[in-house]
Input
Amino acid sequence: MSGESIKNDYLRLKEAPLDNLIGIVQSDNPQDYSLKHVALIELRRFPETDTVNLIRSFLDRHADNSLFKILCIKALSKRSNLKATAILCRLVDDPEWPVREEAARALGVIGDKRACTALLKKLQDINTEVRRASSHALAMIPIDAEDDIRTLINYLVDDDPAIRSSVSAALNESATRIFALRDLIVRELECLAQKICTDERKMAYLLHAIGKHRSLITALSSIDLGPNRESRLLELLAAS
Amino acid sequence: MDDLNTIVANAKAVVEGHYVLRSGLHAKSILKTHRIASRPAFVERLADRLANKLLEELPSEGMPIENILTFEQRTGIFAFALGLALSRLQGKEPVISLVGSYKVDSGEYKERLLVEDSLKPEDRVLVFYDKRITGGNLAVLERILVDEMDKGKNVNVVGKAVLFDFSNFLPEGYKAASKVISLSDDSDYNITFYDPKSYEGCLCCRQNVSVVSCASGGLT
Output
């Protein structure tokens, strides 16, 4: 395929109707490889159309192609429905970490709370960038399940400052949005403080994370800091 | 294969230690390709071999490789040599599109093309990295391509290539997904990778071997 004909096909696809794009994505012709890229990108012009099954079968046929996987994630990121979330939740377990990272970001953009469990699991990924993308995504999703909140709170004392920051933002969002969750969050923060009270570094992380958000700061008065509360609080805040 | 082993041995490229790779895997030893990149004759020999293999194995339809997308620094050194070897063999010099990786304020790494217009629309692009373990950095380069496509710049990816492929040594439960062309398909290097979060964890962590090189930003 010459460069000129690719260019013409590409320009044609920029305005092609949905049926043409579907035809190219479904085609098994290896010469359509570069056109498939464009067709997948152009599918985003039809966010309301149910093309998720098409993307799913495409992904199954091209499971060894990370470029196609990233393109599919981009195409799915504009589709806020259960099927898109399910496919992205599968892609957050991909062998290649950039694919996992992109899938986590896309789940944050969609903001579907059904993705919470998969994203919480990814906070333990061995790749730092996947963990950060998952924590960013969680900060963009309305979290209201009590178990999810309990799991999330433990990451307020994670060693990665980017994760601590996103997690505290996510908890603040939940506590602000649902008043009933605020009590739960405050109780869980007290429990966490009790668990880590002998670890100066983690206590400093926790106080720093709490102090950043108005809805979490109420927990500060309930946290037991021992007899010299004021001086210890100052020490910990200075360390944070 | 013998030549490849000779180059690795002469460059003393396999080094022992406790390494944390960008993928998060740990390694007891790594192939330090900087040591090979600092020997021009070795770089040239590897590049010639890879260029020949690429032209044999990639479906070219008579069309040359027009662009090599890779990272700057050591991988760029191999890419320049590969570009020269390809230009001799195919009669057309490919452009090298270099990608830089920068740590931003949030602590994250962001990658971008160093020369924005180095990738031309409809270019036949080879994605190249010096080695593959999980394939993460190749996928990072592909992500750059997707971003370019997103801006309306369609490119034609002809394939992915590495000099050394270590995906056979991945720990249980890991598998590099993508297909790549590599020089070391039947490599017998004794390199062991560990998942630090698996049941057994990393041998070096268990033995309290301190991390001598944190490779975030470029090894996998």
Remarks:
- Chain B touches chain A through 40 residues (CB under 8 Å).
- Confidence is low (pLDDT under 50) at residues 216-220 of chain B.
